[in-house]
Design goal:
Elements (H helix, E strand, L loop, with lengths): L10 H37 L16 E7 L5 E5 H5 L6 E5 L5 E6 L9 E4 L4 E2 L7 E6 L5 E7 L1
């Protein structure tokens, strides 16, 4: 029978080294997992796959349609579409049905950055290719704004 001490090895030191190696390996694997998750989300956006935490579009459910009207210079109206349809918006379009220019902001609850403002000319439409939870319509200084929203 032999022992590690008889070979000149310290069992406690070996155990510490093994624990340190396993901890380093665990940290490296956690980083790889996070990197793979980010790649999966990126590829999902690229190829139109919905992330796991977003409820996908169901074609059997009728879309939520509303017209947002904003009057007065610089005024805005915000619509919580997630509350209206019960999930994050994954499909839809926004159309300026009025006769004045409108500024539209798509707001996502989980987003770190603020949304970019989109200027919709009368009769123009935008079909977002991203997910959003709320929509804000701002009057652009030309009078009453009417924007139709279709969200699924």
């Amino acid at each position: 029978m032999f022992s590690l001490k008889s070979l000149g090895l310290d069992p406690e030191a070996l155990q510490r080294q093994a624990q340190d190696a396993f901890e380093a390996l665990r940290c490296e694997l956690e980083g790889i997992k996070q990197e793979l998750a980010a790649q999966r989300v990126m590829l999902g956006y690229e190829y139109g796959q919905v992330p796991a935490d977003v409820t996908p579009h169901d074609p059997r459910v009728l879309p939520f349609v509303t017209v947002v009207t904003v009057e007065g210079t610089g005024n805005s109206e915000r619509v919580n579409l997630t509350a209206a349809i019960g999930k994050t918006v994954t499909k839809g379009h926004v159309v300026n049905v009025g006769s004045a220019k409108a500024i539209v902001r798509f707001i996502q609850d989980k987003a770190v950055e603020r949304s970019v403002d989109y200027v919709l000319l009368p009769g123009a439409a935008i079909e977002p290719s991203w997910f959003y939870d709320e929509l804000e319509v701002v009057e652009a200084g030309e009078g009453k704004v009417e924007v139709q929203v279709l969200a699924q």
